[in-house]
Structures are given as structure tokens and as C-alpha cells.
Write a structure and sequence with these properties.
The chain is mainly alpha-helical and 192 residues long. It has three domains: 7-63, no CATH class; 69-119, no CATH class; 125-184, no CATH class. The chain has nine helices and four strands; from the N terminus they run H-E-H-E-H-H-H-H-E-E-H-H-H. The strands form two sheets. It has a two-stranded parallel sheet. Strands 3-4 form a two-stranded antiparallel sheet. Helix 4 (69-77) packs across helix 5, helix 7 (153-159) packs across helix 8 (161-168) and helix 8 packs antiparallel against helix 9. The radius of gyration is 22 Å and the shape is extended. The two termini are 36 Å apart.
Length: 192
């Protein structure tokens, strides 16, 4: 990337390439397309992908293979969950699904610690449960997403406090909101 031309220098070429084109990608509706639009706008264009046909293989995959308890119960247990969202039925179905997964996949064992590790890979990497912040090699909390991804929370709090305030107005978890409020007060998470 270091040797590549600046985006501003090739923006018109990129825009021309997309002229009249249909789009396809994996998670491109939620990630690639907005990223491209935003970056091209930052260099002064009015580029928009609105009104184009956009095929997102991830969205199609999730539609065809839903990630719900009902879908997992059908896939792993071969039954329909008739009382979905009734607490006891959901608990019983979850246990059946876990048992069926352990039986199906050789790499899984019935050991709770091993299943925890499969459920939570790289658990020590994350500052918060929703994985919006992670620890860097020096034990500092850094953004794990968005335009400040990879940058230290303390740096963004100093240089762009308005970004943290903006985030507080969005639908983040209470845990993330607490981290943001603390950061605006100069208090940052500490790795245990």
C-alpha cells in the first residue's frame, strides 16, 4: 500500500470502474460498500452506490442458513422447536443442541472447559464482551472496529473526544458506554 497512489489521485478511475456496475461481495452491504463510499467522499467526490443491484453472499448465506436456536435445533436434532422463546423449552433445546454438536464434531469434547474455549477463542484479547475494544501488545485498550480500528482509546479520547461522544449516542452495550464515559474522564481500562 505504501507504494500505491493516494486515493484522491485514482478516485475518478475507481468511480468510472463502478459506473453502471452491479455489485457482489461477502458482507459488502455492511462493510465494503459503506467503506468505499465514505473514503471516496473524504477525498471530495459525491460517489454513491445507491440504486445499484447489490449481491451480498453473507446476507444470502444468513438467510438460507439462519443463526437461531430454532434453526440449530432443526439442523442438529432433526426436530422443530414448537415452543420457541419459552424459557424452559429454550433451555432444553439448547442442551439438546450442545449434546448433538458434541456427538457430531470429533474436535469437540463434552468437557465444559474445552467447550468454553471453543465458544470464546482469544478471550483474553478483548476488553469488553461485545468486542469493540481489544488489548494491544502493551496492554492498552485499542479500538477493534471502525475508522479508528487499531488506534489506542486514550489517543482517540484526547484527539477526537467528539467521536466518543458520538458513540455514546449510538446503540452500544452498557459496558462499552461505560468505557467511553470513563475515557472521556481520562480513565482507561487496565488489563488484569
Amino acid at each position: 500500500v505504501r507504494e500505491a497512489p493516494l486515493l484522491a489521485a485514482v478516485a475518478r478511475e475507481i468511480i468510472d470502474m463502478f459506473e453502471g456496475a452491479d455489485l457482489a461481495g461477502f458482507n459488502s452491504v455492511g462493510f465494503d460498500a459503506p467503506l468505499l463510499e465514505n473514503e471516496l467522499r473524504r477525498v471530495g467526490t459525491d460517489f454513491s452506490l445507491a440504486g445499484r443491484r447489490h449481491l451480498d453472499a453473507m446476507r444470502i448465506f444468513h438467510r438460507m442458513e439462519p443463526r437461531t436456536l430454532e434453526a440449530a435445533y432443526r439442523k442438529y436434532c432433526g426436530k422443530d422447536l414448537t415452543e420457541a422463546h419459552a424459557a424452559l423449552a429454550d433451555v432444553e433445546a439448547t442442551l439438546e443442541v450442545l449434546d448433538a454438536m458434541v456427538a457430531r464434531y470429533d474436535e469437540l469434547s463434552g468437557d465444559v472447559t474445552a467447550l468454553h474455549e471453543v465458544s470464546n477463542p482469544d478471550e483474553g484479547r478483548w476488553v469488553d464482551r461485545s468486542r469493540k475494544f481489544e488489548w494491544d501488545d502493551d496492554g492498552n485498550a485499542v479500538f477493534a472496529f471502525g475508522k479508528h480500528g487499531g488506534r489506542p482509546l486514550a489517543q482517540i479520547a484526547r484527539q477526537h473526544p467528539d467521536y466518543l461522544t458520538w458513540m455514546l449516542g449510538k446503540d452500544f452495550s452498557d459496558e462499552v458506554s461505560g468505557i467511553l464515559r470513563d475515557a472521556l474522564q481520562g480513565r482507561f481500562p487496565e488489563k488484569e
